[in-house]
Amino acid sequence: MEKRKSSVVIAGGGSTYTPEIVATLVNNLDRLPLRKVVLYDNDEERQNKLAKACEIIVKEKDPAIEFLATVDPKEAYTDIDFCLAHIRVGQLPMRELDEKIALRRGVVGQETCGPGGMAYGMRSIDGVLENIDYMEKYSPNAWMLNYSNPAAIVAEATRRFRPNSKVINICDMPIGIEQAIADIAGLNDRKDMDIRYYGLNHFGWWTKIEDKDGTDLLPKVVEWVKKNGYITKDEIEDPQSEASWSDTYMKAKDVVALDPTTLPNTYLKYYLYSDYVVEHDNPEYTRANEVMDTREKDVFSACKQIAERGTTKGSYLEITNHATFIVDLTVALAFNTKERMLLIVENNGAIENFSADAMVEIPCIVGKDGYEPLAMGKIPTFQKGLMEQQVACEKLVVDAWEENSYLKMWQALTMNKCVPSAKVAKDLLDDYIEANKEYWPELK
Ligand code: NAD
Ligand code: G6P
Ligand code: MN
After folding, report:
1. Do the domain assignments include residue 285?
2. What value does the mean pLDDT of the chain take?
3. Is 94 touching ligand 1 by the criterion CB < 6 Å?
4. Which residue's alpha carbon is at the smallest distance from atom 11 of ligand 2?
5. Residue 312 half-sphere exposure toward CB, CA atoms < 13 A
6. 132 close to ligand 1 (CB < 6 Angstrom)
7. How many structural domains does the chain have?
8. 292 domain residue, yes or no
9. Catalytic pick from 41, 81, 98, 172?
10. Sorting pLDDT into bands at 50, 70 and 90, what band is 2?
11. What pLDDT band is residue 72 in, cutting at 50, 70 and 90?
12. Cα gap 343→360, rounded to integer Å
């Protein structure tokens, strides 16, 4: 029997990730047959820089697939089965401000961790809810796979404000780390492992790494990570990663030392070694600058070349496991594969000794009706304490957005582990309010 064909809209069509997602979608037509691919953005000029190339990528694979790039929500969201959402409200120049405002006050400047992530959260909520509403209005049966950052805060907002919407919040970081873990363990593929993992987004730990025969690989991997972080043997011999990501992968060696019975998410370096992060960052040139000077330039120039030549032949677009994960999740929903995947979902007892209403990142079984979270049992005091502080911070950000509350946002910033005092929190808040006038609700 022929498989049903799906129709997909990419929200944030002008994102640097759009071309690789489009390319990965059409490279997987055997698993996920498509009838339509739509790009939707609220910045026409930016999206147009990528749209022609994306159309060529699609049509070269299968001219029968309809392609559309639009800034009209009705056109974009009509007759859609899946929305892949990766918007960045305020775009990369606002990310630059998130990072620099914090760093100039000696605090971690990062897009999802610390005060920068919280400022970004206050910008993202509206944009994500708006896209959910378009989807529900024009294609009420569609699923949204949302990986717009900061995923933890966005996920709390979707839980609270759109509890019945078909939205799944996800992150690719565990997938990237799992590929490194598989390499370190001597396996070819992360899918050759059985894992257990729990935490919050960008804030979690693996408690089990086994091969398919049930052999425990975790101690061996921990020994490697203690010395080399998640830098694999191949990467040591022939480094491919950007310097800032290598540093993050390497720093995992100090993060793992705090609990060598588990393997940590790399993002914990921002919370556990924030002094180190601040010392090693340059407040005049942050990750946003690096992204604008590398990924953004590379992707836009590759797309320009593809559009000018009318073919993808001879042009280079990098494809990472980020896009593969998103296709895997779409396939699981479309064809009921019951694949086990890490998602950001309401806890509801999955972590036994943790708040029921916290959004946690845990393994779930994914099929046509959505996801079924797996029980993770009780977690230790160290992780529980860290997670409680962080989840309180994330909830207070959403409270501040909901209630237009200056006080709640001040409490949120004070609660964040990267912020040293209420005084610094207040200074940061006033700076962020000034920078985000166009995007934040007015706080009273
Ligand atoms: P980008 O700035 O290149 O692209 C984002 C696009 O979203 C822009 O074209 C912008 O105009 C558009 N946009 C903003 N508000 C919108 C709205 N309300 N409706 C429609 N479109 C809107 O950003 P990028 O670096 O490519 O990243 C895109 C997003 O994906 C970011 O949020 C990033 O953090 C996230 N991301 C998440 C993961 C994850 O694991 N969760 C992984 C990679 C990227
Ligand atoms: C990881 C994280 C994402 C983040 C991405 C890109 O994949 O999981 O949440 O957006 O890295 O970060 P970068 O600094 O390269 O834009
Ligand atoms: Mn992420």
Report:
1. no
2. 97
3. no
4. 173
5. 19
6. no
7. 1
8. no
9. 172
10. confident
11. very high
12. 8
For residue 220, give the amino acid letter.
Answer: K
The predicted pLDDT at position 240 comes to 86
ipTM of the complex: 0.99
- CATH label of the domain that carries residue 70: 3.40.50.720
- Residue 36 inside a domain? The answer is yes
Averaged pLDDT for residues 4-14: 98
The three-state secondary structure class of 398 is: helix
- Asked about 431 being catalytic, the answer comes back as no
- Considering Cα of 106, then 408, then 96, then 256, what sign does the dihedral take? positive
Report helix, strand and coil shares of the chain as percent, to nearest 5.
50, 15, 35
Beta strands 34-40 and 6-11, pairing class: parallel
| The predicted structure's pLDDT at residue 322 | 81
For residue 96 and ligand 1, the question of a CB distance below 6 A is answered with no
Domain of 124 in residue numbering reads as: 6-171
Note if 172 is an active site residue: yes
Ligand 2: which of 173, 267, 296 to mutate, judged by most atoms within 8 Å of the beta carbon?
173
If you average pLDDT over residues 149-168, what whole number do you get?
98
- Is position 65 within any domain? yes
Note the pLDDT tens digit of each residue in 314-357: 888 887 778 899 999 999 999 999 999 999 999 999 999 999 99
